[in-house]
Each structure stands twice: as C-alpha cells, then as structure tokens.
Design a protein that fits this description.
heterodimer, A: mainly alpha, ABC transporter involved in vitamin B12 uptake, BtuC, 14 helices, B: alpha/beta, Rossmann fold, four-stranded antiparallel beta sheet, globular
C-alpha cells in the first residue's frame, strides 16, 4: 500500500501535464479550423447570388466601395454583407444561448425553443402581422421585430420569475418552458384562425426563419447584444465545466448553483430573444450547434463555449449560402436549410463518435 | 484545530430533521464516524456542517462559527465529498479537477496543479483513467474521483458522505487508510458518514450514532458499539468481541 499512500507532491515528472496540454492543443486546432471554415463560409455566402458579382469585384468593393457601380455597391453593401453577417451573429447568439441553457439545465434537449422564447417571439410576430399591420407614427418595418422582441422578452421575464420562485429548480424551469411553448402556440393559432390569407402566409414565412429582411441596424443590434453577453459567458467557463460534474459536486464546493442558473438563463433568453426577433424562429441551430461542438471538443467549456458559437454560426452561414444557390433565382427560407445542413453533419459526428467509443 | 458541534437543529420546511445534535469536541488528527440507519439524519448533518444547509445551533471550527463567518470563508477550510459521485458525462476526471481548482481560484500554477492532480490520481489508483470520459467509468471509480475532488482543495475539515458505498472491500480500506493518514499527518479533521460498522470501528477515533435525527451515543468505538445501542438503532442482535487488539469486532447474530 506504500505506493498508494505516498504523500502528495512527491511526483517528479508530470506526464499528465504533457497529455493534457496535447489534448488542449488539439482542441485549439479544431477551434482554429472552425474559425477558418467560418471565414470561408462567410466569403462564399457574400459571393452567392444571381447578380454576377465576381470575387475580384467583391474584394475591390469591400476595400473601396466607390470603385463599384452603384447597383453593385448596393447589392454588396446593403444586401449581401448584412445577410451574410446576420447569419453569423444570429447563429453565434443562438449557439451561445443553447450551450449555456443545456449546461445549467443539465438537459441535452434544452435550447431557446424549449424555454419558450422562440414561441413567444412567434406570438409577438403573429400579433404584429394579424392585428397591427400598421401603427401610427411607427415605421411598418419596426412593428414586427419590436413585437416579436417584446414577446420573447416577456417569456424571459416569466422564466425569470419561475426561476426565482422555484429556487432555480431545473425541472420546474424546463416544464414551465414547455408549458409556455404550448400556451404561446395555442394563442398564436387563435390569431392564425382569424388572419386573412396574406397575413397567414407572412406568419408562416416568418416562423420558418428568413435572413433576407435584415439590414445593418439588425446586424448591429444583435452583434452588440452578443458582445455584451459573451464576456460573462467566458467568465463562467470554469464554473460551467465544474457544473458538468453534477449539481451535488458543484454545491459541495460552495458554488451557488441556483444563482448561477438564474444568471445564465436571464442572459441566454435575452440573447435568444434578440436573435430570433429579426429573422424568425431558427431554433434548431441553438440545439444542434452545441451538440456538434460537444462531439468535436468535449465538455471543457473553455473550448466548448467558443466551439458552440463557431459551429452554430457556421451552420447558419452555410445554410444562408445554400439558400441563395440551391435553386437559381429563388431564395429558400434559411430555417428550412438549417435542419438540412445540420442534421446530416450531426448524425455523421454522432455515428463516428459511437463507432470510436465501441 | 478543533471542531465543536453543539445544539444543532435543522428543518426541511416545518419538519424538524435534526434535533439538538451535540457530540464531543473533535481535535486535529481525528476521524469521526457518523453511523446510523437510512434516514437517520447523517446526510443532513453533513450538509449543515458543509454550510450547504442552514441550521440552528453552533458549528465552530478553528475559532470560526459557521453562523457568523460567510459561506466563502467557510468553504476555504471545508471540503465535502457528496454522497452522489460526479455525473457520468463526457468530461474527463482531469478536466473536472482542473475546472474545480480554477473555479475556486486555488493558488496553484498550471505546473503545480497538474502535479497535484497526478499525485492524487496516483494515490487513488485513477492514473489509468485520468483522460477517460466520466461516463465510461464505473460507479466506484467515479466515487474515487469525488474523493479526489475533495482532496484537491487540501481542506482542514474533510466531510465524506458515505465515501465507500460503491467501492469493493480493498478500496474501502485503502480510501479510509488514506483519509486517516492525511488527517493525522497534517492535524486535520475528517467526518465520514458510514454504513459499515467494522470499518468505522477500525478507522474512526470517535463515533456518533444517530437515529431519527438524534444522537443516541457518541464516543470511542468500544463505548458506542455495544449490543444495547445497536439493538436500539439498527434493530439487530449483535455480539461484540473486545478480546482482539485494536478495535471491537461486531458479529451480527440476526434481526430483532
């Protein structure tokens, strides 16, 4: 038993340090690869479109916008760039929201969808389209996103109240989120019943998820929201990793799990609210992006949080590019393609991981 | 270093779980065994001692009263190994140890931390599994990782809630031997909730026998582990052999 009872600190060399740093380097390499893939995807997304803008023209136009003809300048700076960038920031926001929600609720199915944020945004959008197509002194383009945002933020407030009342009990939060989904869907369905054909088509189109309505203002708002919240997520990466060891372990170390859960749910739901209000409910990204990152990078949240952000942004960016190129002359709503892109990739990684484990 | 627990009471809602718990003061270098049947209040007492559950009464350790010092200061001295082992996720033991150390801002450089983790894993026979996912490990291995997580903090008061429940006979002895050695070397205090009376008698310096949230008996093993107490608490008939050196041997004759 002597070797087992050797006092701590007697080891001369640390092979663990070598192996652990090798693992960390491999994961940093994967993260770098994801970042590279995202930059490439952004570039291809900007190039995609029917107007015949060449790569050289795009580079010139990005460096010196005045060098382009006016119509090309408008296409590049007012259509393609905002569309391509909103795909990345919305994907990043939903990915961050998804990974944090999954971790603090210890539930692989958790996402902005399961907290009811997306459904509440649909309800707000339905109210805007069906009941308030025009409001005096308010530009029509603002009514829908503002009401969708109000709907989503209202659901965030309700979730916060439930979190406080339940002391942060995760089962209660999940069950309330699911109940909220059903409630919002039921009320929205009521509005759909009284909607005319045009309004109903608009609601369906918005619900599927679409990036083409976004401009620089929307890109700026979602980016600012993401940048305001991301540092808090990074600050909590150790605590979130520790929490993956189980709630009992986290509590035993003195971590106030209920408080951590409350803060994370507040910021995740706000982030998801801002992400979906402009582009519709592209909720699948917030579920599958974090899972793909987990399969690639493991559970260490130093890697997993940025990985989930990059994976989700990448999927939405690829879907955005495909939405403009799959059928020439037609823009397919991106919400349809996120699942088409994400599910095969997810299944591939899942089967590959299972095969390796067995 | 001394632990003093006097007149401790705890409630879940309006239901009182612990009733006026008092046991002899525990000096540095001692291991205390908490004994009792299921639902006797051992885990609740552990949670009160760790500061996880609020209680009434006095818990004083090293001149700090839990009711007066903040939770943060208390957790600098106290580490708990909970009854539940770390969750079977894709996290590796090393990542969990590392994140725990960094989340709690333990003052180790990366080099020192990796040496310390490696040394603890070596002590607990976990070296071959340090980079395996937790979900691939057995319950017993994860229980040992739970103990490693308590060790990484170098606590002055080490609380162990059924630390050997998922371990085989050899590792039960190794773990308690390790705890006893650590406690004796550094003059620390450990309290372990145990179901195994023989192990408790063998490794603990002081026993506290509980039933229905009350202390039935406390003191050295030869005073606590007597047939009358065991019959009252466990409803079993026992014979105690005090003739062999070291600690009393308990022979359970049958249920009453």
């Amino acid at each position: 038993m002597a070797h087992i009872l050797r006092p701590i600190g007697m080891m001369q060399t640390s092979t663990l340090a070598i192996e652990f740093s090798r693992l960390t380097r491999r994961r940093v390499f994967i993260l770098s690869g994801l970042l590279g893939a995202l930059v490439l995807s952004l570039w291809l997304d900007i190039l995609a479109g029917p107007s015949g803008l060449s790569a050289g023209q795009v580079i010139d136009g990005l460096i010196n916008p005045q060098s382009l003809e006016l119509r090309y300048k408008i296409i590049l700076w007012d259509v393609r760039l905002p569309d391509a960038l909103i795909a990345i920031v919305v994907g990043a926001a939903l990915g961050l929201s998804g990974i944090e929600t999954q971790t603090v609720l210890d539930n692989p199915l958790a996402s902005p969808f399961t907290l009811g944020v997306s459904s509440a945004a649909v309800l707000g959008a339905s109210v805007a389209i069906v009941l308030l197509p025009s409001v005096p002194f308010v530009p029509p383009a603002f009514i829908l996103p503002v009401l969708a945002l109000l709907g989503a933020l209202s659901s965030s407030c309700l979730i916060l109240i439930v979190v406080r009342l339940s002391g942060g009990a995760r089962e209660t939060v999940i069950l309330f989120g699911i109940a909220l989904v059903f409630l919002c869907n039921a009320i929205a369905s009521g509005f759909h019943l009284i909607a005319d054909a045009d309004a109903l088509q608009q609601v369906v189109f918005w619900t599927i998820g679409n990036l083409t309505k976004a401009g620089w203002l929307e890109v700026t708002i979602v980016t600012c929201c993401f940048l305001a919240i991301f540092p808090f997520s990074i600050k909590h990466v150790w605590l979130l990793t520790l929490l993956r060891g189980g709630e009992a372990h986290a509590r035993s170390t003195g971590v106030d799990v209920s408080r951590l859960r409350t803060w994370v749910i507040i910021r995740s739901s706000i982030l998801a609210a801002f992400a979906v209000c402009f582009v519709g409910t592209i909720g699948f990204i917030g579920l599958v992006g974090p899972h793909i990152a987990r399969l690639l990078l493991g559970e260490d949240h130093r890697m997993l949080v940025p990985g989930a952000v990059l994976c989700s942004a990448l999927i939405l960016s690829i879907a955005s590019g495909l939405s403009k190129t799959l059928i020439p002359g037609v823009i397919i709503p991106v919400g349809i393609l996120t699942a088409v892109v994400g599910v095969p990739l997810f299944l591939f990684l899942l089967i590959q991981r299972r095969g390796r484990s067995s | 270093m001394r632990l003093s627990v006097k007149n401790l009471s705890a409630f879940y809602g309006k239901k009182q779980i612990l009733h006026d718990i008092t046991f002899p003061d525990v000096d540095g270098g001692m291991v205390v065994g908490l004994l009792g049947p299921n639902a006797s209040g051992k885990s609740t007492l552990m949670k009160c001692l760790s500061g996880e559950k609020k209680s009434k009464g006095n818990i004083i350790f090293d001149d700090d009263n839990l009711q007066e010092v903040g939770s943060k200061k208390w957790h600098e001295k106290v580490a708990t190994m909970p009854q539940t082992p770390p969750a079977p996720t894709a996290l590796t033991p090393t990542e969990l140890m590392w994140s725990t150390a960094r989340a709690l801002a333990l003052p180790y450089s990366d080099k020192e931390l990796s040496r310390k983790i490696e040394s603890i894993f070596n002590d607990l026979g976990l070296s071959d599994f340090q980079l395996d996912a937790l979900h691939t490990l057995s319950g017993g291995k994860r229980q040992l990782i739970g103990l490693a997580l308590a060790f990484i903090r170098d606590p002055e008061l080490l609380l162990l809630d059924e630390p050997t429940s998922a371990l085989d006979l050899r590792w039960r002895m190794i773990v308690l031997e390790l705890v006893k050695n650590k406690v004796q070397q550094d003059g620390r205090v450990s309290i372990a909730a145990l179901h195994d009376l023989d192990l408790a008698a063998r490794y603990c310096d002081l026993l506290v026998l509980m039933k229905n949230g009350k202390v039935i008996a406390s003191g050295p093993s030869e005073e606590v582990l007597i047939p009358e107490n065991l019959a009252r608490v466990y409803h079993v008939e026992t014979e105690i052999d005090l003739s062999k050196p070291g600690y009393p041997r308990i022979d359970v004759v049958g249920a009453i």
